[in-house]
Write a structure and sequence with these properties.
This protein has seven helices and ten strands. With about 200 residues, the chain is an alpha+beta fold. The protein folds into two domains: about 100 residues, Jelly Rolls (Sandwich), CATH 2.60.120.10; about 60 residues, Winged helix-like DNA-binding domain superfamily/Winged helix DNA-binding domain (Arc Repressor Mutant, subunit A, Orthogonal Bundle). The strands form three sheets. A four-stranded antiparallel sheet has the order 1-8-3-6. A four-stranded antiparallel sheet has the order 2-7-4-5. It has a two-stranded antiparallel ribbon with strand order 9-10. α4 runs antiparallel to α5 and α6 packs across α7.
Length: about 200
């Protein structure tokens, strides 16, 4: 997201996190901007019965957890590494100095946050109203649209990850994907979902 040379100029530190380590927890105050150099991170909430509801997956070059920096509220979810990861941390004050010095980067953040808000609104509607097949198709079409792919799109998620992103059980996801394949709404090629 932010070029490494620029983020380093503003004093970012590169921190190593081992697999399954929390970077921040739901309810904590935001003090840093986070950007992944190498690794994978998921943001999630735990339901009352201990099930994870994943807000998003992030990987090399992605940033995460920015809205609490802008809105001065606590983190609404926990961020945890999925593999050993290297993450840039930039203090909140330095992050805002960087955005003031680079309005082009600020505009990119505004666009990215708007896209994430649209995704959250879509998923909230899906979870509250629609059946599993509709939820899954909405997620997959959103991913394809964001990837700017106009031909066949191989979904980069496992059935488990689709489950976590839609609030469905894995078994439900598997059954729904089979139904969607029968109706030709998607295809399964070499065990991968293609839309």
């Amino acid at each position: 997201m932010i070029p490494e040379q620029i983020i380093q100029t503003f004093g970012a530190i590169l921190k190593t996190y081992s697999k399954d380590r929390a970077i921040f927890n739901e309810g904590e105050h935001a003090h840093f901007y986070y950007q992944i150099k190498i690794g994978q991170v998921k943001m999630f909430n735990l339901t009352e019965d201990g099930k994870e509801f994943v807000q998003g997956f992030f990987e090399n070059g992605n940033s995460f957890g920015e809205p609490p920096l802008f809105g001065a509220f606590k983190y609404p979810a926990t961020a945890m590494t999925l593999i050993d990861s290297e993450v840039y941390l930039l203090s909140k004050a330095s992050f805002f100095d960087l955005l003031k010095a680079h309005p082009d980067i600020h505009l990119i953040f505004t666009q990215m946050i708007c896209k994430r808000m649209i995704y959250k609104a879509k998923i909230a509607r899906e979870v509250s109203i629609y059946p599993p097949e509709h939820r899954i198709l909405t997620l997959l079409h959103h991913l394809k649209s964001n990837a700017k792919v106009t031909s066949d799109f191989e979904v980069p998620l496992t059935r488990q990850q689709i489950s976590e992103l839609t609030g469905l059980r894995v078994e439900t996801v598997i059954r729904a994907i089979k139904k969607l394949e029968k109706t030709k709404a998607l295809a399964i090629i070499d065990r991968k979902v293609v839309i």
